[in-house]
Amino acid sequence: MRPLALLCLSLLALTARAADAPLTYVGTEGPGKGKKVVLIANDHEYKSEEALPQLARILAKHQGFSCTVLFGIEPKTGNIALGSPSNIPGTEALKDANLLVIFTRFQAIPVEQMQPILDYLNRGGAVIGLRTATHGFRYAKESPLYKYSFDYKGDDFKGGFGRQILGETWVGHYGPNHKSSTRLDLVPAQAEHPVLRGVKDVWAEIGAYNASPIEGSTILAMAQPLTGMKPDSPTDATKKPMPGAWVRTYKSTSGKEGRVFASTYGASGDLANDGFRRLLVNACFWTTGLEAAIKPDLKIDLVGPYNPTWLGTLKRAGAAKPQDLADYASPIFPVVPAKAK
């Protein structure tokens, strides 16, 4: 084969490998330097594929964490999937991770992709679970992984990953989604908890979930449904507050306990709210044992153009691959330009 042809083939192979590589943001300076966070996004509605890269950018650029974002991937195209299929390559990145942030829904990923997650849990790794992560996995009863399914009924792991690790499984909506947003009121008795340091005015654009966290959980915020889709919408007087964010620990098979922060919120638009974003960044510090570094004015600014599309008129411009988001200045995600009036 001619040298030029060999060179072309080599370049094509390198390009393919780069396209297949996980999205990584390497932190350089800050209290999180030396800590590795793996974020897994693949849900069908709440735009985890928008929320988690933005969180990763904040943690890396402002606080020094090194972050790897894994997405659901369409095998034929390499494009970022929107919940389906259940295909999340790269979970082996958890081997040396300090924190797993998971935002999945009804996934049935194959054993080879699930095993690194189980290995991570078996060593007591820290976990943050958002919104649909309570029902992040759904396996058939005949599957060897059925134990981790949200609907598992066995006493040995009742409620699956959601209940036994995060503290709650799927229970149901609490009020009309898409018509009701949510105010998260901090629990006064937990005002001194490090995760709440500097947190105020927390609002989520998504509707409430029912939740009754497992015994031993510490509720940090109560979710109050509103009658509209704005932060100042009236309180829904027919709905009492429901647990919306909590912390707990789980005991791994190795005997080590892992710290957990869970919230039934976290859609992409929720991160546009300063209060929710600070709550989430603080949780990343606390779960990784860096609570002493949590300051009330910790930098949590959004990084790069951020276009959450769950609520409002913004529409995605088209499909994207993980590496399209690699530059801090690249938009999450490109959107269709608004028509001139």
List keywords for this structure.
341 residues, alpha/beta, Rossmann fold, ten-stranded mixed beta sheet, two-stranded antiparallel ribbon, 5 helices, 20% helix, globular
What can you tell me about this protein's structure?
It is a single chain. The chain is an alpha/beta fold. It has a domain at 23-172 and 244-325: Rossmann fold (3-Layer(aba) Sandwich), CATH 3.40.50. It is 20% helix and 19% strand. It has five helices and twelve strands. The chain has helices spanning 3-20, 48-63, 111-122, 160-166, 274-287, and strands at 23-25, 36-42, 66-71, 99-104, 126-130, 173-174, 182-186, 202-204, 208-209, 218-225, 242-251, 257-263. It has a ten-stranded mixed beta sheet with strand order 1-3-2-4-5-12-11-10-7-8. The radius of gyration is 20 Å and the shape is globular.
